[in-house]
Amino acid sequence: MGKIKACLFDLDGVIVDTAKYHYIAWKELANEMGFDFTVEDNERLKGVSRMTSLDILLSIGNVEKSEEEKLELATKKNENYLSYILKMGPEEILPGTKEFLEQLKKEGVKIALGSASKNAMTILNRLELTSYFDAIIDGTKVSNAKPDPEVFLKGAEALNVSPGECVVFEDAEAGVEAAIAGGMKCIGIGNAEILRKADFVVDGLHKMNIAMLEGLNN
């Protein structure tokens, strides 16, 4: 391996798909209040904070709640979500992830997680992937959300490598922007149209190999 010494991974949409559990938890909340919440409605919540998401949900149902009631509802949604997370298992790891992490380990490439999720450790433990990561930077360790590069810069620091020696794997536009802002290479996972600022885009980690990383040095 040439210049690339470390790979930093976002969690949701790259290693595992937890978005479906967020959707189910919001839908349950809506149904309890007597209205439906569709997959199309859920698109409006992507990349949005929990409290803003709740406001959108309430506006869809045309429901008014006090600030105190909103806090209770947001807590309930998170408890619903966590109940699903705690049932996850290694079978939910996205295709090719484990194989690619094993390739990186073999080549001596350092591995970090860079995720806004405060549940990242719980999820990695459930997936039995924790031991692959040399550093885990999650929502409990950062104060600025992506596109701020803080989460990735802290990851590079924890791995003791410079940003220029890092490649970030991201499925969200804000994450790609965070990687670029941090002076790192970035590989997009998913939609090439949305992630066009990335160095290149693949469908998933099952399409990745070490040679492709080396190509980023040229």
UniProtKB/TrEMBL annotation:
Its EC number is 5.4.2.6. GO terms for molecular function: beta-phosphoglucomutase activity; magnesium ion binding. InterPro entries: B-phosphoglucomutase_hydrolase, Beta-PGM, Beta-PGM-like, HAD-like_sf, HAD-SF_hydro_IA, HAD_sf, PGP-like_dom2. The active site is at D10 (proton donor/acceptor), D12 (proton donor/acceptor). This is Beta-phosphoglucomutase. It comes from the Bacteria. Substrate binds at residues 10-12, 26, 45-50, 53, 77, 115-119, 146. NCBIfam families: bPGM, HAD-SF-IA-v3, PGMB-YQAB-SF. Mg(2+) binds at D10, D12, E170, D171. The keyword Lipid biosynthesis does not apply. Gene3D superfamilies: HAD superfamily/HAD-like (3.40.50.1000), Putative phosphatase, domain 2 (1.10.150.240). The record marks S115, K146 as: Important for catalytic activity and assists the phosphoryl transfer reaction to Asp8 by balancing charge and orienting the reacting groups. Belongs to the HAD-like hydrolase superfamily. CbbY/CbbZ/Gph/YieH family. Its cofactor is Mg(2+). Binds 2 magnesium ions per subunit. The keyword ATP-binding does not apply. It catalyses: beta-D-glucose 1-phosphate = beta-D-glucose 6-phosphate. Pfam families: Hydrolase. GO terms for biological process: carbohydrate metabolic process. The gene is pgmB. Keywords: Carbohydrate metabolism, Isomerase, Magnesium, Metal-binding, Phosphoprotein.
